[in-house]
Amino acid sequence: MTTQTAPSAGSSKSGETLVKISGLKMYFPVTSGLFIQRKIADVRAVDGLDFEVRRGETLGLVGESGCGKSTTGRAVLQLYRPTAGKINFDGTELTELKGAALRRFRRRMQMIFQDPYSSLNPRMSVGQIIGEPMAIHGLYKGAERTERVQYIMQAIGLNPLFVKRYPHEFSGGQRQRIGIGRALAVEPDFIACDEPVSALDVSIQAQVINLLEDLQSQFSLTYLFIAHDLAVVKHISDRVAVMYLGKMMELADSIELYENPLHPYTKALLSAVPITDPEVERKRERIILTGDVPSPLRPPPGCVFNTRCPIAVDECRERVPEWREAVPNHWIACHRV
Amino acid sequence: MTASAAAEGAPRPVVAGTSEWRIVLGRLRRKRLAMISLVIISVIYGAGILAPLLAPYPPTQTNLDRPVEGPSRDHLLGTDRLGRDELSRAMYASRTTLIVTTAVVLSGGLFIGNTLGLLAGYRGGWVDTLIMRVGDVFSSLPSLVMLILINATLGPRVIGWTRWVEGHTPFDGLVASGFPSYMLVFSALSLFFWVGTARVIRAQVLQLRERDYIMAAESLGASPRRVILQHLMPNVSFLIILSLSATLGGIAGSEIVLTWFGVGVQPPAASFGAMLFEGSGTRTFQASPHLLLVPGVIVTLLLFAFALLGDALNDAIRGR
What we know:
The complex is a heterodimer of chains A (337) and B (320). Chain A is α/β, with parallel strands linked by helices and 337 residues long. Chain A is 31% helix and 24% strand. Chain A has helices at 69-76, 99-105, 126-137, 142-155, 172-184, 202-219, 230-236, 254-259, 264-271, 278-283, 314-318; strands at residues 17-32, 38-54, 58-62, 84-89, 92-93, 109-112, 190-194, 222-226, 239-244, 247-253, 324-327, 330-332. Chain B folds into 2 domains: 22-57 and 69-106 and 248-296 and 305-320, no CATH class; 108-210, no CATH class. Chain B has helices at residues 2-7, 20-29, 32-54, 86-106, 109-123, 125-140, 143-168, 174-177, 179-208, 212-220, 224-261, 272-279, 282-287, 290-317. In chain B, helix 3 packs across helix 4, helix 4 (86-106) packs across helix 9 (179-208) and helix 11 runs parallel beside helix 12 (272-279). Chain B is globular and about 75 Å long. The two termini of chain B are 36 Å apart. Classes of the chains: A alpha/beta (337), B mainly alpha (320).
């Protein structure tokens, strides 16, 4: 069974770019009018992102609720059609794919969802859920498919004797494993994990995180790991990107970002992570941001963070900071650094 | 399966899961009223199916020597004004009800409503607008008037076509059974009745569409057809069954009402509507109460059974 590992696409080595996102914008129109729908505004969920995901890495994507993390993940997978921007997946321009061609391409990119309850069809048994991607893409017929389903169930730590059971007969953690198995079934290169552990108990979170890491090395997967739990992201990610109000604030190697954050927003975020040692916890400096996140309907001019930034100057309120590589491999959007 | 079980040494059986359908059926089986309702419906429908075998007399055989008799050994439920056997009439009336309700399913009333509801809810946009606005137009027309119009204008033609079918195929007695006119009436009714079903299904689909498993299916590369058939339809199937049980009762009742008014099934064919009409009136009731009681009790039981069964199904589906 060990021969059934994912065939990696061509002569690829880890470290090269797998997905390149440039100028990604995702606006949701707000309409009004009873008969003639008139667009009155846009919710700028994602407003111009440039980054790349390297083959074999885990790119963490963090930010507060509503900053556009999940939207970014869904737009990259073309579950939402982006308003603007390019997404180059291993040489293929995803924004130009449509219909059946796009559906065929989905074999290479999968998604793991946050809610283990609503992400599984209650009318399908585990075997059907994990087998469905293979049915869609016409992989593994008949007995081979049954065998493959069992192989995946073992890989995700579920007893293969449970193939005929239904989602409601499993716990949250087990259900999340089923969701992971479904994503694995078609041997993808890239998986967008949309807060895969946020809905689980802390003890189960660790199990699922470890499972994701094991599977990554076993199947040479690339992850875009979306989360708001900084400790989890630090643990699993090679590089981490910080988002605020639809824009990227900072992107660096995981260790670099946590030890040497440059952006004032990242600093404030990291200062909010609880530290288990009470001595250190008492002494450390806590940056508390004032005010609320502005509405993505009317983001502030200049740097979107200027309304809450402790070190903002006039320039921040007037000019949008450019996304630049301040230090090699350390990207940032801030005038003051 | 056997391969991996053998590899582990001891062959163990696959643990069978319990699907939600089985849970619902289990709950339903414990409801006494639902089971009684099912029995009543089966008995009445069974009598309808087996009427030609079981009925003691032909339903149209008159005996003017013995009109309006009470129950006796010859006529267990008595006779009507023309001396026809009341029990045989009731059995053939059940047959009418059976044909009427089957015709609704066959003429596609349920099929149309469900398909259009699924489509409108999932596709949204102009498809949704078109389907729902057309539905609004149909539901704003007075269905009874339209029904009479359609029946009067198309009826003879449909009977003509059926005669042609009878002449060219082994099927016999189609016209005599009144099947073509039922099909016509209920195809016409379907034109008006799909709207309600479609609206209910659409509303549910709009809600389901936001579930992650629909997005998950799309992210797996499932075609719209697959999303609708594999993911949406099984999850609205309970609603479809519910609408079925509600519609069948309503349709059976509406045939009886139409016939009572004289615009439904035409004599000499037996119908509960006609039997009720013949038995109503204070004097008739005082002189021979069985003329009203026989069809009255059966119809009441049948409609109650449909209502109670639908109610119990609803409870079972919602987990009570």
